[in-house]
């Protein structure tokens, strides 16, 4: 008679113990996997910036100047102001990223933009001007193909923003210095007239960054040294929520915001339980396609500019008024064309990347020394200094010094 031995196997208790051990191991492994993925995304983001830096230097070698922030074709026939949407010209509202395209391996897109009749984003044919219409959501302009093209080298993999209501997004913006005044118009009037002496004086005093709206800029202008000056910075694109970094708040008159930039992120307007979001009582300007980083081709600060006033990942605000037109205050047609306080930022942990003038990419922490955040900025309005006098040292510490190109500040700290 055959004898059968007891069959080996797991008891229920042993099986539960094994499952528990596997669960613990998976729990320990997942954060490491996530950290590794973020490290890879951060490196990819840094590589994008290096590519842009090479493009800027190659552009300067070719044309002996930097690509102009807010360039392009002039006013439409019969037009009276640059801030009105136009289908026949771009009103000199194009960002420096447009001119940079042939130098960052985007020649095909540049050919579409620089020649007439570029295709619509829905594939239909259209009669378009060379260099495109204004890069906004005006009648017919929202369908212009090139302005809606997502460019991989302008996107940080850590930023999940995608799709409507934005056009083509950008996570990289040019440095406009440490003052909000003249940041949308530079040395021009509302009619793009560059012969107005008041506008010119304002721009010379207020536009202290590497890029000056509607004005040529060269490396020779960076007297503080290329290695000591921020040329571009990383920004966060809007996700349609109330994020203080991406959904701009309307923060009062220009002179008030220039006198005390700390009012932008005042605790009165920030959600006390979620300090990265606006409270319900804050007046926000987002509507339709207005949002931080929503249009890579648009030269207005909300979309493609950053400043070294507030440290990285702080609140974004716009003034309630329009532009100072040399001698008078001009209302703007849309809130996204006003002077704005636009810090850099990212979805990386603890800070963001910046591109220095020499092409080096640095990671700036949120805790960088940023001086007195309640100090007035340089604000030469009309013929008067409404803030600090022209040529003053930046009051915003090491961060402010890095954003000015010719204020003769000594960078003596590590960053």
From TrEMBL:
InterPro entries per UniProt: DUF1559, N_methyl_site, Pilin-like, Pre_pil_HX9DG_C
PROSITE patterns: PROKAR_NTER_METHYL
Segments of this protein annotated with the region Disordered: 115-140
Domain DUF1559: 34-370
Tree of life domain: Bacteria
Protein name: Prepilin-type N-terminal cleavage/methylation domain-containing protein/prepilin-type processing-associated H-X9-DG protein
């Amino acid at each position: 008679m055959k004898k059968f031995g007891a069959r080996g196997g797991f008891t229920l208790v042993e099986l539960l113990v094994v499952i528990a051990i596997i669960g613990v191991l998976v729990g320990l492994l997942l954060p490491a996997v996530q950290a590794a993925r973020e490290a890879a995304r951060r490196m990819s983001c840094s590589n994008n910036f290096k590519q842009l830096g090479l493009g800027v230097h190659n552009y300067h070698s070719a044309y002996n100047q930097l690509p102009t922030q807010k360039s392009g074709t002039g006013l439409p026939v019969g037009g009276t102001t640059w801030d009105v949407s136009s289908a026949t010209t771009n009103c000199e509202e194009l960002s420096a990223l447009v001119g940079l395209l042939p130098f960052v391996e985007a020649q095909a897109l540049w050919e579409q933009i620089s020649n007439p009749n570029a295709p619509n984003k829905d594939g239909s044919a259209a009669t378009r001007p060379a260099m495109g219409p204004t890069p906004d959501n005006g009648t017919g302009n929202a369908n212009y193909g090139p302005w809606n093209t997502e460019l991989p080298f302008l996107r940080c993999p850590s930023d999940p923003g995608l799709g409507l209501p934005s056009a083509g997004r950008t996570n990289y913006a040019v440095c406009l210095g440490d003052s909000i005044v003249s940041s949308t118009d530079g040395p021009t009037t509302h009619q793009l007239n560059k012969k107005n002496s008041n506008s010119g004086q304002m721009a010379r005093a207020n536009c202290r960054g590497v890029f000056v709206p509607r004005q040529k800029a060269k490396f020779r202008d960076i007297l503080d040294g290329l290695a000591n000056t921020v040329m571009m910075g990383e920004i966060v694109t809007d996700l349609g929520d109330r994020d203080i970094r991406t959904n701009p708040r309307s923060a009062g008159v220009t002179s008030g915001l220039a006198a005390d930039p700390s009012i932008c992120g005042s605790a009165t307007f920030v959600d006390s339980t979620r300090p990265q979001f606006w409270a319900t009582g804050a007046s926000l300007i987002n509507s339709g396609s207005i949002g931080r980083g929503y249009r890579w081709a648009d030269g207005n600060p909300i979309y493609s500019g950053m400043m070294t006033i507030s440290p990285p990942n702080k609140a974004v605000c716009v003034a309630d008024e329009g532009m100072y037109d040399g001698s008078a205050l001009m209302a703007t047609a849309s809130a996204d064309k006003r002077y704005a306080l636009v810090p850099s930022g990212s979805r990386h942990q603890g800070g963001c990347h910046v591109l220095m003038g020499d092409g080096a990419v640095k990671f700036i922490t949120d805790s960088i020394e940023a001086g007195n955040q309640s100090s007035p900025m340089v604000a030469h309005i009309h013929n008067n200094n409404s803030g600090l006098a022209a040529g003053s040292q930046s009051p915003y510490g090491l961060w402010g010094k890095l954003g000015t190109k010719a204020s003769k500040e000594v960078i003596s700290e590590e960053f």
